[in-house]
Write a structure and sequence with these properties.
This protein starts with 5 loop residues before the first helix and ends with a helix. The chain is mostly helical. It is 67% helix and 0% strand. The chain folds into 2 domains: 68 residues, no CATH class; 117 residues, no CATH class. The chain contains 9 helices and no strands.
Length: 193
């Protein structure tokens, strides 16, 4: 396991390669001939490094753990995604101005959409993807197609744009809080090496 970032470490810590095989070969169920030497201590080293990362993840608050799993786990669950979306919505609402019940109901779907956008932008751990729904008309069409929720285009800048930004801010804040302990573990491991 090569550790380049906290996001990548979160993703890779649940892989368990078989001795003498890459994780892909183990998953495929076939042995792939390679020019590498036979079994090494690499699987044991991977297990040690992964254990440190898994331990840091296990100690996180359940919402931070769910957010991180939904973002970076090799196999995120629907429960993790739903918990992450709820955390984004709740944090954004706590920072937003008062809303009517009708707007709050639609705002929940906006938060879900922003979380999906944020996940796509940061997928792979390098934060290199552009926001595919940056234009309001594309985002509104996506929410309509995905959840069958209409968002008015009139006064978008006043009614929804500030809440979208609050959702992105919530994603950044939750992400930083989830990754911070992982980063500390990585720093300590690199310092000890």
């Amino acid at each position: 396991m090569k550790i380049n970032s906290a996001r990548q470490a979160w993703h890779d810590c649940n892989y368990n390669p078989a001795p003498g095989q890459t994780s892909d070969a183990a998953e495929l169920g076939v042995v792939v001939q390679s020019t590498e030497r036979g079994p090494t201590a690499n699987p044991a080293m991977h297990a040690v490094l992964a254990g440190h990362i898994q331990s840091a993840i296990a100690r996180l608050h359940f919402q931070l753990r769910a957010f991180g799993n939904a973002m970076y786990a090799a196999e995120p669950t629907d429960d993790d995604r739903e918990e992450a979306e709820a955390a984004v919505f709740n944090l954004a609402c706590s920072r937003a101005a008062r809303m009517t019940a009708s707007k709050r109901e639609r705002a929940e779907y906006v938060a879900k959409g922003v979380f999906r956008r944020y996940r796509y932008m940061h997928q792979g751990g390098q934060s290199a993807n552009a926001d595919p729904l940056i234009k309001p008309e594309l985002f509104r069409a996506w929410i309509k197609g995905e959840y069958d929720i209409e968002l008015s285009s009139a006064a978008w800048g006043r009614d929804w744009e500030p809440f979208v930004q609050l959702c992105f801010d919530a994603c950044y804040d939750i992400d930083a809080r989830a990754l911070s302990p992982i980063g500390r573990v990585i720093y300590k491991m690199k310092e000890a090496a």
